[in-house]
Amino acid sequence: MDDDYSDDGSVEFSEDLLNDQEYDQLLDTLPVLKQKLAKFDKGSQINELVLKESLYDHYFEVEEALEDLKVSHKLKRTYKFSDYLSSNFNTESPDEKVLNAQKKAFDDFNKLNIKTSKKEDKISKILDQSLKVDIKSELATNKQFKKPHKSFVVIGHVDAGKSTLMGRILLDLNIVDLKTVNKLIKESESIGKGSFALAWVMDQTVEERSRGVTIDIVATNFETETTRFTAIDAPGHKDFVPHLINGLCQADLALLIVDSITGEFESGFQLEGQTKEHTLLAKNLGIKNLCCVINKLDKEDWSQHRYEFIKDQLTDYLINEIGFEQSDLSFIPVSGLSGNNVIKRQDIPEFKWYEGQTLSAYLETIDVPKPSVDEIIKEPFNLVINDIIDNSNSEFTVVGKILSGVIQINDSVSFLPINEIFKVNKINMGGNFVKFSVSGEIVELSFSKKQFKEKTFEDVIIGDIVSNSTDIKPVKSFTCRLSLFNLQKPLLVGTPFVLFRNNFNIPARLTKIIEIDNSKKRKKHLISKQSALVEVEVEGERLLPLTIFETNPHLGKVVIRREGITIGAGTVVKL
């Protein structure tokens, strides 16, 4: 047993040995502990088994477990903004100088406390309005938006080769050199954190390239001649499925990395493997385009027979079991280690049978549906917080993907569920300060802490929503249409589970089964593959911000997990 899981000779923790009362306590307290840990640097990286063991050791007292973990893992509450910036961005950019000068001028003016006439008030409003950006014009002329932006998440069973493949992409795009890639992949794998190699690569090259943005999982920005990309590397281990959910919620498409080696594919594709759960979550969290990357095919001598076998197995499952459309699936054989068919195709006799795209060609040409400029302007602004940075005593920053709409400096937005209103001070996109940003971009928004009225910075957590929409409602209970997957046991009224909305998770319970599809009987439980109209209640004091699915699919969809397994997904129909 690893040192991380031992505790000086005390009774070894095993979830299977918990009685019903202990299991319910664990299910109730684990999400609460995760929420608290999310406020600490590296708190979200602690293995879930360690969290469970700590709760068990402290008789499910969350605060005691938290204090123990803070000491044992040397957790720090404060995030340093400088950690996220390269030396290239230590000085003000031209845009930042202008914006800071404007802000200082308005701040100095406000301090004068001058009484103005109605006419002067009107002029002041016009001046303020003049700072607003002409979105249509800027999108057409601003070089930062000249290239389309796509975000993709890399998913798959542990050890499928995700990190090696991502390192290969960066190497062959000349973003990093071969020596650095090999060194960092070896170092990261030696301590069991292979999925962190991409982040380490970008930390090494941060002076040469735009920085990556750490958003719970590992996310990195890079560019080709035609496209701006955000690559999101999600851990493959089952203990980190909540991190995977976070990554899926930020992505436009997904790359499913599959190990083609005989026995390895079969292992990852079994029920206890992560291939199936990852694709199940991808589909139910809104991923439309899925590219199955058949990795390590060089170890099978580029066998077309092996490739076709894996392709057939995945196609049947993804279409008939998960619900993907054939037209939304792609299959690309590669070797992440040698680089064949990742960026370029090598002249290998055994591989002449393949006539399809390289992986990079797929990424550049895949059509990712985006709203029109008119639609973007009309839509309300919505962003789910994926990271929080405590810049200083006076300012904080939130990081996330813009789900819809437009955001500009000086725009007023509401933080939900705490119902505090803020004006945007700064917007950072890909390492550059900008005047505005739009749907699909991953951004940092900075705010003054002085704007808090009733709450404090400590009340803002990962998973909260930043919005100017009136359709979002923080609720204690809601009605949803729930579709269940394979269950190990029936889902009873009163059963606790963990509910996910985007990257936010909260303890919840099934409180009422209103109607079961294709069944006239009223039942007190649900079984595998059933769909039903149900009422759900979240637990604890914090409310859950939601929308009705038809109004906003991004914030009206939920996933439920129990005993470490994804058991269902639902769409919100009533608040």
UniProtKB/TrEMBL annotation:
**Protein localization:** Cytoplasm
Q: Which UniProt keywords apply?
A: Cytoplasm, GTP-binding, Hydrolase, Nucleotide-binding, Protein biosynthesis, Translation regulation
Q: Which Gene3D superfamilies match?
A: P-loop containing nucleotide triphosphate hydrolases (3.40.50.300), Translation factors (2.40.30.10)
TM region positions: none
Domain of life of the source = Eukaryota
Q: Which reaction does it catalyse?
A: GTP + H2O = GDP + phosphate + H(+)
Gene Ontology cellular component terms for the protein in this record: cytoplasm; Dom34-Hbs1 complex
Q: What CDD domains does this protein map onto?
A: HBS1_C_III (cd04093)
Q: How does it assemble?
A: Component of the Dom34-Hbs1 complex, also named Pelota-HBS1L complex, composed of dom34 and hbs1.
Q: What is this protein called?
A: Elongation factor 1 alpha-like protein
Taxonomic lineage from the root: Eukaryota, Fungi, Dikarya, Ascomycota, Saccharomycotina
